Amino acid sequence: MLEKNSIQDIVKVIKKRIFLILSIVVIVSGIVAGINYYLLPDIFQAQTQILVNQKSTSPEGDPWSRNESDLQLIDTYNVIIKSPAILNKVIEELKLDSTSEALSQQITVSNQVNSKVVNIIARDSNEKQAVDLANKTADVFKEEIPKLMNVDNINILSSAKFNENAKPIKPNKILNVAIAGVVSLLLGIGLVFLIEVFDTTIKTEKDIEEISSIPIIGVISPFESEERNRSKKKLQEQRRNVIV
Fold it and tell me: For 82-172, where are the alpha helices, taking DSSP H only?
């Protein structure tokens, strides 16, 4: 536990260089705010849900076995959705200036545990483009998957829809600026103490005592120069003469 004097010393150091600390906070926070508000593009997200069922090869097949087989193939469907076989056609139909590798980075495919519902999530700096990507990827998958696998029952549960008032999912500008403020505050305080540690100049009697390990037995007060004393006395005499 810190002693009272130690805490007081810490507070004194911070107070002495509070302007430096605040300057660091303002500068770093301002830079982060400028990057977030003016340089980083807003990213919007759109989602489409599809339900995939495998074609039954036997009309008398066990429904439970077919369901388990469908669930085991979900991971395969997720890979197929992001494959060039699907994404190249999406690029062609939407006339995108992109590649399947780049488009793959914009699309996320997922599903909940033990669920045959596949979520197709598309992200783009343009919200309408994100909506088009999600919907077109689902449409192309529905069209192409019967040719690739033994699947004939694909239903689109929900399509992505354009919303003029949609908010971007990132960057989280307020959060980023707040984090920058806290981090810069800590950095500023750390820098102040670092400066204090490496500052070897003697400022007070206490500094002399700590360096020399010799107790101080007296202090000479500041005194004015002889010329200044004469000037002060002369001024006082002139004032007395004026009063008389």
Answer: 84-94, 100-106, 127-148
Assess whether 196 and 92 both reside in one domain: no
Using 50, 70 and 90 to split pLDDT, how confident is the model at 1?
very low
Q: pLDDT band at residue 160, thresholds of 50, 70 and 90?
A: confident
Same domain, 59 and 135: yes
Q: Are residues 26 and 56 in the same domain?
A: no
- Within 10 angstroms of residue 185's Cβ, the number of other Cβ atoms is 16
Position 2 scores a pLDDT of: 45
Could you tell me if 151 and 224 lie in one domain? Answer: no
Residues 233, 136 share a domain: no
CA distance 91 to 78: 18
How many domains is the chain built from? 2
Residue 17 sits at the vertex; the CA angle it makes with 15 and 21, to the nearest 5 degrees, is: 105
Q: What is the pLDDT of residues 171-202, one digit of tens each?
A: 899 999 999 999 999 999 999 888 888 876 76
